[in-house]
Design goal:
The chain is of the alpha/beta class. The protein contains 13 helices and eight strands. It has helices at residues 26-37, 58-72, 87-100, 117-130, 141-144, 150-159, 173-182, 197-202, 213-216, 219-228, 232-251, 254-264, 281-293; strands at residues 8-11, 43-46, 78-82, 104-107, 135-139, 163-168, 189-191, 207-210. Helix 6 runs parallel beside helix 7 (173-182). The model has no long low-confidence stretch (mean pLDDT 97).
């Protein structure tokens, strides 16, 4: 099903765990989502990289989808990330997400064996045929082991019914330009690289997918608004104010740094799940100083 593009900030929550790491802290997850809703997002995307989707058991993933649907409850579009080695597992999650009442999917293929373009195309096609939810193609080779060139992503949007948006997180601005040129500007694309936010939005990105609102509140939304209004001087000033935090949270690992930052701000979201370790020592003090400087 084709739906209207999303214009603005697509905000990504962490997934809080209980102190012993045994399961999701459901009240804390609700608080994290409510705090994100107060940052003026255009949409919320759960179970992405920041949400530690790769570290969740199957029943936890499904519960997180239910909790997300309950907490967001139509306030903004709710996107659910799906990253699975097998197409069958991805299809099963897509069907569950649709039944839970989410608004769209964000699909990133992951691999052990290297996938060729026909295999990637078939993966997305099978998911699209199994659900009526629209699908955002998500390219993040650093975490998935799969690098989808702009030509393939544009072709999937054109040829697979239900695939309609592209999130590009390789950190290469030229790929975003290529998506725009290959589609004659008809396919909305979204920036997933924090350090490129200003350049990507100025280049025509429909939005910015980021976990930054967890720690930076409404500032990411303000940045988007400045660019949309052509206020590039104000956008540039705000971006470079935020850039040290944006770089820190990515380089330190989103679950680790965002959960530490939330704790510093008084919102307890637990520690990341092992083998990830909580932020500590000099790095925690550095984050404290960076947030204090905003």
């Amino acid at each position: 099903m084709q739906r209207a593009p999303i214009h603005g900030i697509i905000a990504y929550p962490v997934t809080p765990f209980l102190a012993d790491g045994s399961r999701i802290d459901e009240p804390a997850f609700h608080k994290v989502l409510q705090a994100l809703l107060a940052t003026d997002p255009a949409a919320i995307a759960i179970l992405g990289s920041a949400g530690e989707s790769a570290y969740l058991r199957e029943e936890e993933w499904r519960r997180a989808v239910e909790l997300g649907a309950e907490a967001v409850a139509g306030s903004v579009p709710l996107i659910v990330g799906i990253s699975e080695l097998t197409t069958d597992a991805a299809v099963a999650k897509a069907r569950f997400a649709e039944q839970a009442g989410v608004d769209r999917l964000m699909v990133i293929p992951i691999s052990y064996w290297k996938l060729d373009q026909s295999e990637i195309f078939g993966h997305f096609q099978a998911i699209a045929e199994a659900t009526t939810l629209p699908i955002m193609v998500y390219n993040n080779p650093a975490t998935s082991g799969v690098d989808m060139p702009p030509e393939l992503m544009v072709r999937m949007v054109r040829e697979i019914e239900g695939v309609d948006l592209i999130k590009e997180s390789s950190g290469d601005l030229h790929r975003m330009h290529a998506i725009h040129e290959l589609s004659n500007g008809t396919i909305p694309f979204y920036n997933g690289a924090n350090h490129l936010a200003l350049e990507a939005l100025a280049a025509g990105a429909a939005g910015w997918c980021t976990a930054a609102p967890n720690l930076l509140g409404k500032d990411p939304a303000r940045l988007f608004s400045h660019v949309a209004a052509g206020e590039l001087g104000q956008a540039r000033e705000l971006f470079y104010k935020l850039l040290p935090v944006l770089r820190f949270i990515v380089h330190g690992g989103l679950p680790t740094t965002v959960k530490a930052g939330l704790r510093l701000k008084g919102l307890e979201a637990g520690d990341p799940r092992r083998p990830l370790l909580p932020l500590g020592g000099d790095r925690l003090e550095q984050l404290r100083k960076l947030l204090a400087a905003i």
